[in-house]
Amino acid sequence: NAGVTQTPKFQVLKTGQSMTLQCAQDMNHEYMSWYRQDPGMGLRLIHYSVGAGITDQGEVPNGYNVSRSTTEDFPLRLLSAAPSQTSVYFCASSYGGTSFSEQFFGPGTRLTVL
Amino acid sequence: AQSVAQPEDQVNVAEGNPLTVKCTYSVSGNPYLFWYVQYPNRGLQFLLKYITGDNLVKGSYGFEAEFNKSQTSFHLKKPSAIVSDSALYFCAVRPPSGAGSYQLTFGKGTKLSVIP
To answer: What CA–CA distance (Å, rounded) separates A101 from A99?
Structure first.
């Protein structure tokens, strides 16, 4: 049971480049989400999904796209990277159906946009 | 919309002393409250949660938290701090139902340093 996995661990992009951050979980969790962590700002929700085929925007969705074709995978796409997207990105998952289930977090992807 | 405040950016405590990390929240209805811990270069780990029932919640690694509805607080406590408790601690809140009920809102985090 690997839990929540994220790839890559580190990435450096140039402004305007695109890339996909991968997230997978093997716990059959319905709910998955993406957060970004910036110093002094805590974690902010980017996008989330309550099940395969269902996604919605969080607090800071601009510049990011998501899709959820399977229960296991929830990739985050940066369409045209900007320096403001330099951050640490965390994927999380939890059981669905009840809103009091704790979330399990991946190890994070540290992204630098030059 | 819900919000969480962690009024202290950093808390220093001597090893063996009790520790408290403060958290206050704002949410419509009865809240679901969580504490997470983050060690350097790691993801967040769940510590404990309050859903309903007893106001004193016990969690992992000897931590506990007290829910106070009148003060809208959910402070994290431990009777005796150890050096390995040094980490970044996040309080989070979820509304119980309705739109946004899956959205977890985090505080900005409190860095705990336990001094040997």
So the answer is: 6
Number of H helices, E strands in chain A: 0, 11
pLDDT digits (tens, 9 = 90+) for A38-91: 988 889 999 999 899 999 999 999 999 999 999 999 999 999 999 999 999 999
| Pairing between β-strand B19-21 and β-strand B56-58 as defined by DSSP bridges | unpaired
Look at residue B2 in the predicted model and tell me its pLDDT.
85
The Cα B92–Cα B106 span in angstroms is: 4
Nearest CB to A41: which of B34, B43, B108?
Answer: B108
| CA distance to partner chain B, nearest, from residue A43 (Å) | 6
pLDDT surpasses 90 at B66:
yes
Residue among A33, A36, A103 at smallest CA distance from A75: A33
Task: Show which of residues 24-63 on chain A sit within 8 Å of chain B, judged by CB atoms.
Answer: 31, 33, 35, 40-45, 48, 50, 58-59
- HSE on the CB side for A38, CA within 13 Å? 12
Write the CA distances from A59 to A45, A105, B4, integer angstroms: 5, 18, 14
Chain B CB contacts of A4 below 8 Å: 43
Single out the residue of B74, B70, B82, B63 nearest to residue B33, CA to CA: B74
pLDDT of residue B99: 57
